[in-house]
Each structure stands twice: as structure tokens, then as C-alpha cells.
Amino acid sequence: xxxxxxxxxxxxxxxxxxxxxxxxxxxxxxxxxxxxxxxxxxxxxxxxxxxxxxxxxxxxxxxxxxxxxxxxxxxxxxxxxxxxxxxxxxxxxxxxxxxxxxxxxxxxxxxxxxxxxxxxxxxxxxxxxxxxxxxxxxxxxxxxxxxxxxxxxxxxxxxxxxxxxxxxxxxxxxxxxxxxxxxxxxxxxxxxxxxxxxxxxxxxxxxxxxxxxxxxxxxxxxxxxxxxxxxxxxxxxxxxxxxxxxxxxxxxxxxxxxxxxxxxxxxxxxxxxxxxxxxxxxxxxxxxxxxxxxxxxxxxxxxxxxxxxxxxxxxxxxxxxxxxxxxxxxxxxxxxxxxxxxxxxxxxxxxxxxxxxxxxxxxxxxxxxxxxxxxxx
Length: 377
Description:
By secondary structure, this protein is mostly helical. It folds into 2 domains: 2-43 and 174-376, no CATH class; 52-153, abc type-2 transporter like fold (3-Layer(aba) Sandwich), CATH 3.40.1710.
């Protein structure tokens, strides 16, 4: 009971110190509000209303079909240009894409001579240029394939014999802000859990209050446990409030009935990342050094955890290495619970993995803290 009382009162002391740290309070407020909203809505991942024009030198039913295939929501309705108008329009930045249908395109296609379409892309518009070329190619190939199929079946055929019907589950409208909001929430929870605990430990060292703690009958376990539960609780409450007010209320991500499973996973994630923060705090000697360590730690955790890029597209070695990071399992748990409504029966392996990784980091951090306090004593 004495140990629990010490951990409780030390944690209250950490909360009072945090209330007087305006910089950390502003960082938390920004990370759980504007950062999530701007990351979710600022840069769409899909092509949206890109300016496209066409040059129809064929004047055939197929070229007319291609012209009618492009439109909202991915492209603006494409105007028809003359060949001499293409270069001035591209130089003026009026269009990102210009599709040129050459003369006799339909005749050469039906004759098996493999004609080519020319697509001019304004590569200075990087986001649209990278994704839009694939969209244009997919739309053109789909229209050409359907035109050839109708030609073979005859003019009386109203539709092909088989048609693929897509039904999107969990995000029927394919709204990219849903994924961006949850990914940013996960990243900010990880970042704040590490930053707050490491800053709390370094603040004790820089202000000289660590010597006061050493003069008291306190163990390194009590000092560390107090920082873990207090900072973890603050970030967990902020994450729950952001999930309800920003992710659900402002962005419109529907929350399933099993949100408590996500909260349980977030609590275990806080145990793991706050332990990582204590470990980094024992390695750094000052806040500038801590900032450099955070760059080396947070970037791999955010980029290779599966929130931004699917893990299936990563090299196998990277996937195996990132299994030792708690963020990898937390991303899988968050996507399963928030998007697919998975319950405890589905995500219990991720919960156990986060708990085991957190216990390992807690043990390493405690050993490092004991060694550092022993050297100071």
C-alpha cells in the first residue's frame, strides 16, 4: 500500500507540473484537434476534379466515347482542343492532362494495328501527376475494352455477358479523410506518449529535482510507474475526446459499438510508448538530444507501421523487424475495431502483442533508470 500511495502522489505531482507547462498543453491541444483535422482533409489521397482536355483528331464513335468517359468526380468535364492549342494551354497551366486521340484511331484498332494514345501531363502538379496518369489509363482501357466487346457481340447486344459489380464495405464512399483521421490519431498518440514521459524525466534532471526524489524513500520503480500512469492517462483521455469530437463529430467517421476495445488497445499502447519515452529519457542528456532521438524513433514508427503504407507492400525483412514495434499492432487493432467493428475475439492477438512489447520496454527502461539513478547517487 505504501508503494501504491507513493506512485499515486508522484503521479499527481506530474499532472500538476504538466498543468504549468504551457508549451506541452498547446502541443497536446494542437495534436488532438487541428493536426488531425488538417491531415484528414488537407490533402486527398484520390484524384478529385483534375483539369483534363482532349484533342479528337479521329472524330469517331470510339473517340466520342472516350470523351464522354471523363468527368466528375475525378476529372472536370474535358473541353476539346485543337492540336495547336495544346502547348500554349499546358504552358499556361490550364490543364494537368491532355489526351490526344490520333487520326484513324478506331480504324487502326479494329484492324489490329495497335494504335497509341498520347497523354501529356503537367508534372509540376505532383500529386495529380503521380496518380492521375493511372486513372486516365484505366478509364481509357476500360472504354476501349468495352467497345471491342460490343463490336464482337454485335450491335444488338445491350450489355456484355458478365459484369463485375463492386461493393465497398466499411467505407462505401471511399472517403480518404476517414483513413487519414485515424492514421493521424494513432501517430499523435504515439508521439505524445513518448514526448511527455521523456520530457518529464529530463525536466527533473535539468531542474535538479531528481536529487530531491533521491533523498526521499522512493524506488526507481515508483518514480517510473508514476510518470507512466500520469502521462499515459492524460494522452488516453485526449485521444478519447479527439476520437469523439474530431474524428467522429467533425470528420464524420462512424464509430462502432465496440469502441471500448479500441480504448483498451490505446491504454496498452500508452503503457508501451510511455515506457519507450522513459527509455529514451535515460539515453538523452538534454532536450535537444531528445529531439534528435525522437526523429530517429518516430519516423520509422509512423511510416512503417502500416498506417500510411500497407505492410504488404513493404520488404519482408522490414515487416518482420516492425513486429517488434507496438505501433504496428496498434494500427492493425485500430483499423479492425474502428473500420470493421471487430471485437475482442478478433483483436486479442494484437492486445497481447502490445502488452508483451510494453512489458519488455518497461523492463529495459527500469533497468536503465536504476543505473542512471545509481550513478547520480
